[in-house]
Amino acid sequence: MSDNLAASVREICKANGGDRTRLMDIVRAVQAKFGCVSGPAMEMIAQELKVHRVEVHGMVSFYSFLSEQPKGKVTIRLCNDLVDQMAGAAEVGQAFEDELGIKVGQTTPDGKIALEYTACIGMCDQAPAALVNDVVVTELSTDSARRIVRELRKHMDPARLVTRLGDGNNAHELVHAMVLNNIRVKGSLIFTPTNRGEAIRKALGITPAEVIRAVKTSRLRGRGGAGFPTGLKWEFTRAAPGERRYILCNADEGEPGTFKDRVILTELPDRVFAGMTIAGYAVGAEEGIVYLRGEYAYLRKYLEHTLQERRKDNLLGRNILGKQGFNFDIRIQMGAGAYVCGEETALISSCEGLRGDPKTRPPFPAQKGYLGCPSVVNNVETFACVTKILEQGPATFCEIGSQGSPGTKLLSISGDCKSPGVFEVPFGIKLSEVLKLCGAEDAIAVQVGGASGQMVAREEFGRTICYDDLATGGALMVLGPERNVLEAAEKFMDFFVEESCGYCTPCRVGNVLLRNRLARILAGDGEPSDLDYLNDLGQTVKIMSRCGLGQTSANPILTTLKNFRPAYNALVKKRTDGLQPAFDLRTAVADAERVIGRKSEHAHA
Amino acid sequence: MSATIEFTIDGKEIKGQPGQTILEAAQQAGVYIPRLCYMKGLTPWGSCRVCTVLINGRPQAACTQPIAPGMVVESSTDKVNALRRNIIDMLFVEGNHFCMFCEKSGSCELQALAYRLGIAAPKYPFMFPKRELDMSHPDVFIDHNRCIQCARCVRASRDVDGKHVFDFADRGAHRRIAVNAEAFLKDTDLAVTDKAAEACPVGAIVKKRTGYAVPFGQRLYDKKPIGSEIEAGVKS
Ligand SMILES: Cc1cc2nc3c(=O)[nH]c(=O)nc-3n(C[C@H](O)[C@H](O)[C@H](O)COP(=O)(O)O)c2cc1C
Ligand code: SF4
Ligand code: FES
């Protein structure tokens, strides 16, 4: 067994060129083969790569899909984000527990099946959903959960759980998933037919500087959330000194409630790869990397195949489409379960085989990114837009949308609405119109922008989706009349506590404090001063945190404090006896009682 | 000599050299900006966030932010110091810090900074985490109860000692210092003479048998608040 481990580890490291920067691929391979990356495995990997054991240990322990202890041969990861909870994930979890005879977080005694909760897996429009190893199972019920366990017990083959296929490329033999695209509204940009190769041909017909000018003229801004002007980012990267440059595509899509990149990658991967190639030409890069979240591993084969087809057609590779000296290729880097790796510098760390800690800025990725080289990081949808801009010209792109926000935006809509799914809408659309489109006229609140976004109340449904008003990466989670917005906020805080990298104090500690105080209020033990406490603490986390995660993680609390104050006021009560509601005398003296071996008469009076 | 860069901190004119961080330029000019994870000679890390200043109103860590001409820096104002106190409070409640029993008391940077900023007791509830104690090494011990995750030991070992005795494991609230061995410090190549053995600002990594060499009352911060040496213009 240990000989087997040693030989396998050596082989895996060798297959990755003994390259320390490919540690992610190496540990993923070891995890897949042995069900864990054990202490001895870490020791051997460290030896093979000539790094320190603690570096491998630190890296493995960072990602939730990697483990030091053996889990099951099959791991069921049930998504427990807000929308899945609303759709009954708790009952499904209970059914899994009953049928498996274990609790969430445990492995069956025969070592075969492990059960875990996981953060949003990008399937909110078909919730509740789970990953069974790499296989996605959707629209779960207590019945289907039980059936899944019984099936697995029979054959232990997650692939055989896919009994019906989804639409579009989900049914492609290389995807073979029951996932649905749920494309509800097609706009005039992304979900339109294109000529494969056309955009690249047009780009190669002009100079790189002209390509950048076209992107600047289109006024395209990043679709991943932060909204930075894409042309400007490319210009900085092109101007930065460096031997090599890189184009990174952010396909981490970890923001709870977001799933539109999944649909783009399923249906239009060519358009994304074309955008990356155009970026490569524009900034002078020869290598592109798609950072694909571990949850989307089921798309990998298909994406690899698409890349292969592009190489065959000289849309990738050397002297692309006959353009002498323009070489560009793309590889896929898998992630392993960490929301923070969607943050661009953390994404770079992860691509380099490190812990997914964000990097210190400056330098910015455009100056010193992947392996210290100038790098562009853009969202999947941003690259898809680039292809369209080159194909049609920037003027056509600007005709759609609003003045400050040209183009369309893909929205991922889920929760309490009749038709959850992906909607391509022009920027500048009113939130109320969007709610009409998805059949959610009775919504009491919408969380716009995912967990890190804002909880918008009914009175504000007249606001518009654009960079100057409701800026968003596209996630809309709808809460119907039955829902409690503060419980939703608590759910989001749980998420941030789980996903903080822990590097900096305010995010590592502050989010726990915020979550705990909100939980106390929800338990009925809150007092009026707790609201100031939450606000002051939330502002501290927002202002003092090192990266975008901590700078936005207090938003669920800060925006509900602002927009749903009556909900808080109804919960916090001023006590007349002068005691703090959260203070329980019996609990307070319990330890002391245990030590002295008798009960306090006073406390139990 | 390259051109100097002029900017202000709390209205005071500062002249710095290109490539300096705000914290370094300030220090050279006798202005103390509170800090914990910063240590002279180590790559700036930016994790504690105590050194946060407002640059033209925007928050940045002074220990990692390069100076730029004309920047208006706000550092020792009520608003910024209130935010810093919150961070220090967080560090206190996150671990188990019992100053009165701690060998480091009086020369602890966390304690000294709390006093300097006027904290008598943290306003957040204590978390009382269960943390480990590693006494295995003959000359140095680690008390994780007191660790504030500043990475000074990590950087000192890696960048100064040319080893890699320490690094981080896990993430979020579970993030912690790990050693380059299966479990114990004794199985690493840490030597008591390493920079890493004296880089800890608190009492988390302590040399054994030295804890009480200097009596209480005569320690580094017993007489003057932390930062006074910088304000007195003494070059460190
Ligand atoms: C915690 C965190 C998570 C993020 N996750 C994503 C993500 O999953 N996908 C994405 O495109 N951008 C994400 N971003 C934004 C990226 O840092 C970056 O701004 C974006 O990839 C740039 O691409 P764009 O300009 O095309 O939007 C995230 C940011 C933070 C702070
Ligand atoms: S803000 Fe949070 S995620 Fe970002 S560096 Fe700090 S601890 Fe890590
Ligand atoms: S001293 Fe600057 S962040 Fe710690």
What share of residues of chain B is helical? 10-25%
Number of helices of chain A: 24
Average pLDDT score of chain B: 96
- Give the overall form of chain A: globular
Q: Biggest interface, which chains?
A: A-B, 40 and 42 residues
Q: Flag low-confidence runs of chain B.
A: none
Query: How many helices of chain B?
Result: 6
Classify the beta-strand content of chain A into a percent band.
5-15%
How would you sum up this structure, described in words?
The complex is a heterodimer of chains A (605) and B (236). Chain A is α/β, with parallel strands linked by helices. Chain A folds into five domains: 3-62, no CATH class; 74-163, 3-Layer(aba) Sandwich (Glutaredoxin); 185-398, Rossmann fold (3-Layer(aba) Sandwich); 408-479, Ubiquitin-like (UB roll), CATH 3.10.20; 485-569, de novo design (two linked rop proteins). Chain A contains 24 helices and 14 strands. Chain A has a six-stranded mixed β-sheet. In chain A, strands 2-1-3-4 form a four-stranded mixed β-sheet, covered by helices on one side. Chain A has a four-stranded parallel β-sheet with strand order 8-7-6-9, sandwiched between helices. In chain A, helix 9 packs across helix 12 (269-283). Chain A starts with a helix and ends in a 9-residue tail after the last helix. With 236 residues, chain B is of the alpha+beta class. Chain B has two domains: 8-76, Ubiquitin-like (UB roll) (Roll); 86-207, Alpha-Beta Plaits. In chain B, strands 2-1-5-3-4 form a five-stranded mixed β-sheet, with helices on one face. The chains are: A alpha/beta (605), B alpha+beta (236). The interface between A and B is large, with 40 and 42 residues. Flavin mononucleotide binds at residues 222-226, 228, 250, 252-255, 340, 342-344, 377-379, 382, 547-549 of chain A.
